[in-house]
Amino acid sequence: MKIALVGPAYPLRGGIAHHTYSLEKELTARHHQVEVISYKKLYPRFLFPGRTTIDASELKLESGAQPTLDPLDPRTWFEAFRAIKKFSPRIVVVEWWNPFFAPALGALAAMLRMARIETIFECHNVFPHERSLIDFPLLSFAFASVSRFITHSAKDREDLLSIKSAKVAVAPLPPVEEFAGGARDRSGRRILFFGIVRKYKGLDVLLRAMPRVLSEVECDLVVAGEFYDSVERYEAIIRESGIEKNVRLENRYIANEDVPALFEEADVLVLPYLSATQSGVARIAIMNRLPIIASQTGGLSESVTEDCGLLVPPGNSDALADALIRYFKEGLGSVFSERMKRLDSASDDIARVIEEMAEEN
C-alpha cells in the first residue's frame, strides 16, 4: 500500500520529527511504500525560543523526506499537494501538534479531500499546551476536511470529540528504538528530568521538592534539555534552595546519540507536568525499563501504571518529595524495573490503526 506521511522530519529536530522517522520505518517494515513530505522550515523566529530547529546529531534519524512545506508560504502547500497527488497514495497521515500550522494543513487537507484522497490527522496534542482564544477557529479550519484521527491518549480523544464528530482511534506513542540503553535494576539514586524545559512541564515543582528529599535521602538530579523558559529563573530556585551540589543542568538540545546513556544512568524519571496529553519521554523510559514518577494529569495517568511508577498531584512539591523519598527508601526502583519487563512498547500500534483505517475506504 502507498502511504504518504506529512510531518517534520530530519534534518529538523524534535520529538515529532523522531516520531515521523519511527513511523516511516515501521510502515516500511510492514511492506508499505512510504513517501514523507516534510517542512522547509517550521516556526518564524519570533515564535521559536530555541537555538536552532536543525538536528546536528551524529546519529541521523533519516526518513528520506522531501522538505517541501513552509507554513507561511501558500505556494508550498500546493507544491506538497501536487507531490502527494503524483505519488497517488491510498491514504495520507498528517502529523498535528500546534494550531500555528492550521492554515497550511487545513488547506492541504481540503485539497486532498477534493482529490478524493483520504487523510488521517495524527494528533500529538489536539490543543496546544498554552491555549489562546484563536485556537478554536484555527482547529475548526484545520479539521474541517478530515473525518479520521489518531490520538495518543483517551484524554486527547475526549478533547477532540468535544469539538468535532469524527472517527478517533487511540494508540500510544511508540518509542524510538535508537534511544534504547542498557536496562538495569535502578537501585541507585539519580533523578532524571528530560526534554525541552517549558513552564507547563513543572521543573520548578521538582526543584522545590529537592530540599525535603535531600534532607532524608542522598541523591542527585540531572536536568537534560534546552530551556525554552528563562534558565535564570530555575538557577535562582536552585541557589535559594541550597541544592547546587546536587543538581546538574544540561541546557542544550540533547543529541540523539546521547539519549541512551542518560536513560541508562538514571534511576527514576520525573515528569512533574502541570498539564499533559501524552509523553514521548515516558515511552522512552518504559522502553528502557526506567521507572517514572509523574503528575496525575492528562495522558500521563494512562501511561504511568502501577507496573512502572508512581503518580502525584500536579503542582504539589510536598507530594512529589514524599513520592521520591518513598521511592528511594523502599527500594522501588528494583521493584518497578522488574515489573516493567512485562510491559509492551507498542511499537506497531499506530501502523496497524493506519492500515485498518485505509482498509475501511
**CATH superfamily of the largest domain, called what?**
Glycogen Phosphorylase B
The amount of helix comes to 25-40%
Low-confidence stretches: none
What's the CATH class of the largest domain, please? Alpha Beta
**CATH architecture tag of the largest domain:** 3-Layer(aba) Sandwich
Provide the β-strand percentage band: 15-25%
Which fold name is given in CATH as the topology of the largest domain?
Rossmann fold
Count up the helices. Answer: 13
**H/E series:** EHEEHEHEHEHEEHEHEHEHEHEHHH
| Tally of discrete structural domains | 2
Give the end-to-end Cα distance, rounded to a whole number of Å. 13 Å
Described by strand count, sense and barrel closure, the largest sheet is: 7 strands, parallel
Structural class: alpha/beta
According to DSSP, the number of beta strands is: 13
* Arrangement of strands in the largest sheet: 3-2-1-4-5-6-7
Q: Give the CA-based shape.
A: globular
Computed over alpha carbons, the radius of gyration is: 21 Å
Q: Roughly what is the average pLDDT, rounded to an integer?
A: 93
Task: Kindly describe this structure.
- The structure is a single chain.
- With 361 residues, the chain is an alpha/beta fold.
- It has helices at 15-29, 74-87, 102-114, 135-143, 154-161, 203-216, 231-241, 259-265, 280-287, 300-303, 317-329, 332-339, 349-359; strands at residues 2-6, 33-39, 66-69, 91-96, 118-123, 148-151, 167-170, 190-194, 220-224, 247-250, 268-271, 292-295, 309-312.
- The strands form 2 sheets. Strands 3-2-1-4-5-6-7 form a 7-stranded parallel β-sheet, with helices on both faces.
- Helix 5 (154-161) links the parallel strand 6 (148-151) and strand 7.
- Helix 6 (203-216) runs parallel beside helix 7 and helix 6 crosses helix 11 (317-329).
